[in-house]
Amino acid sequence: MWSGPRNISTAMMRSFENRPDCAVWDEPFYAAYLAETGIDHPMRAEVLAAGETDWRRVRDRVLGDAPGGKPVFYQKHMTHHMVPGIDRSWISRLSNAFLIRAPERVLASYARKRADVALADIGFVEQAELFDMLAETSGAAPPVIDADDVLANPRRVLGALCRAVGIEFREEMLSWPPGQRDSDGVWAAHWYGAVERSQGFQDPPPPPPPLDDTLKRIADEARPCYERLKAYRL
């Protein structure tokens, strides 16, 4: 699943992890992305210490079997982690789907957790690039789901997603126990407060407050990428 940050991506991971047939992996390339770019992120030192910084080793594990021999392997990938120094040619060997969200919602949430934000931090351009690459490779658009649609009707959208990727929908995907998970990345302490309190998908939030000029400019830059993928949503 390819998304940017602040996009119910962890709730989606919770949903799949609650399936007894599914293993999950939280942002496999985070440490490699930090090592490759040198960018300063919250808990940078902890992420680098806990994760694999060689993207080639991460790639090999991503393409391997699911932990515990589970038949379904849900990988929560961040599109902005796919920087130029990390090869993308292997991605077409996975079953890929895309989770999108309106840039205004993403930025309003992101800015509450990290003061400095640029277009490259939220992954919209990279998401569109990956979508185009996979559509060209396969000859068909990969599945796309919109976060607002998931929150409005999780049963319908998750059912459509499961059909699109060739697995059975399971009722366990609609709720989960609150709390932390061993599968959560070390960065959960900074980013996952709301999802740790959750027991299922929340109702769609109200529209975010108006963005300041800097964030609005970023949202305007991101919107064409969002609208292009939105046209294909399930």
Describe this structure in words.
The chain is mostly helical and 234 residues long. It has a single domain, classed as 3-Layer(aba) Sandwich (Rossmann fold), CATH 3.40.50. It has helices spanning 9-17, 30-37, 44-50, 55-62, 103-110, 119-122, 124-138, 147-152, 154-165, 188-191, 193-197, 213-230, and strands spanning 2-3, 22-26, 72-78, 98-100, 144-146. Helix 2 (30-37) crosses helix 3 (44-50). The longest helix is centred in the C-terminal third of the chain and has 18 residues, at 213-230. The radius of gyration is 17 Å and the shape is globular. The relative contact order is 0.20.
Features of the shown structure:
single chain; 234 residues; mainly alpha; Rossmann fold; three-stranded parallel sheet; two-stranded parallel sheet; 5 strands
Structure summarized in a few sentences:
The protein has helices at 9-17, 30-37, 44-50, 55-62, 103-110, 119-122, 124-138, 147-152, 154-165, 188-191, 193-197, 213-230; strands at residues 2-3, 22-26, 72-78, 98-100, 144-146. With 234 residues, it is mainly alpha-helical.
